[in-house]
Amino acid sequence: MVNMKGRFCIKLAVVLIFFGGSIYAADINMANILKAPLTDVTEKRFDEICALLSVNSVVKGNFNETKTLLHRDKIESSGKFTISVQDGMIWQTITPRPSIIAVGKEYIVRTTSHRKIRVTGNEAAMFLRISEMLKAVFSGDSAYIKKTFDIYFAETDENWIIALTPKSSTFKKLINKIAIQGKTTINKVLIEETTNDTDNYDLSNYSYAKELTAQEKNYFITDKE
Predict the structure, then answer these.
(1) Least confident span in 10-19, 53-62, 184-193
(2) Cα–Cα dist 22/160, whole Å
(3) Cα dist. 56→5, 135, 187, 222 in Å?
(4) What is the mean pLDDT of residues 56-77?
(5) How many CB atoms sit inside 10 A of residue 144's CB?
């Protein structure tokens, strides 16, 4: 069973991965997309999409998450995310329980209504590795993605779908498959965990910037700094 640390890693992975399209996550047919590994033609298109997603230094948006747990009720949450290629990720949950998680290059800062907690060392290692992978996506580092995942790709007039299955043992412990749906930005992400639980993310209301605001930078700083 995936523990709370594992579930948090999966949440980080979902947030940072991609943008785009116009079809509901339920419409992603994982079995079909896994029949379409990259070819010479689709690899070129995949690289074009990575380049498109790397144009902006800072990407912001809203998320709605629905987690479907095996033999249990669904869990829903919503909030905002900010991704900076230079600084890292900010994941702000608004409902049901407010919290802010900032993942930098070497540590994590979790902010609640009462305090900030800085996490470093072995406890943060998994999160930081996932953050590194996700930032590689936003910087258009298709070579890194190809090294870390087996990639599947399909496209219609309406949208493209990318599926990823992990190569590394680190990610295999957490994730079976990831599907991302988009067009010019990513708006649907479907995650299948090793427990057969699934996460569906709707991403919307994108905005872009050259750098983080002063308040956003402060999320990476603890009260003692």
Answers:
(1) 10-19
(2) 10
(3) 30, 12, 16, 27
(4) 89
(5) 16
How far is residue 213's CA from residue 94's CA, in Å, rounded to a whole number? 19
Read off the tokens for 94. 């608004």
Q: Two tokens at 23?
A: 């079809």
Strands 58-68 and 198-209, sheet pairing: antiparallel
User: What is the reported pLDDT for 92?
Assistant: 94
pLDDT reported for residue 15: 40
Written as six digits, the tokens of 54 are 């790397």
Contact 201, 25 (CB under 8 A): yes
- Would you say residue 6 has pLDDT above 70? no
Query: Which residue did the predictor score with more confidence, 218 or 171?
Result: 218
Provide the whole-model pTM. 0.78
Distance CA 131, CA 133 (A): 5
Q: Is the pLDDT confidence value at 44 over 60?
A: yes
For 93, the enclosing helix (H) or strand (E) is strand 88-95
Strand order through the sheet with 160-166? 116-119, 108-111, 99-103, 88-95, 75-84, 58-68, 198-209, 186-193, 175-182, 160-166, 149-155
Short-list 24, 8, 11, CA closest to 204: 24
